[in-house]
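Subject: sequence -> structure tokens, single chain

Hey, anyone have a minute? Need the predicted structure for the following. Not urgent.
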Amino acid sequence: MIKLVEITIPIDDLLLDPTNPRFVKDLHASPNVPDEKLESKQESTLRLFKKGRPEEDQEADVTNISDLYKSMTTIGFVSIDRVVVRPVLGSSKYLVIEGNRRISTVKLILNDYKGGQFTPKERRELEPHLGTFQTITCMLLDTEGLSAETIDHNVS
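Reply:
Had a minute. Here:
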């Protein structure tokens, strides 16, 4: 039986899902990425989320995070809908099953903050909210004792 357990996880331990349904362009392609390759896919997965104005291309709209980015820089991360994760096999990290847009937004805000992308005024307005980005309360899909096939079936 699958169960969900609440857990608080450092943002650096949350991995984006490179097989997120938002990225599917070919329904016949194999979306599987082995757990041992997930970390190497993080930079390219993060780049798939856009924070600019939605283009006329409707496909770009499903990965656009401009609304979340603006909201989170103003009020911080608010955990209204829980992020759902599962453990990454052979690692202390977790794969985001549900909540990839929110987690990618947090990661981009932190990258932009560290990279000096904010004006001094924007930095001052963001700083009170930085603590909300450091750890995220998630719902952990307890997969102990389950086969990879059972986990994939339950996640899908």
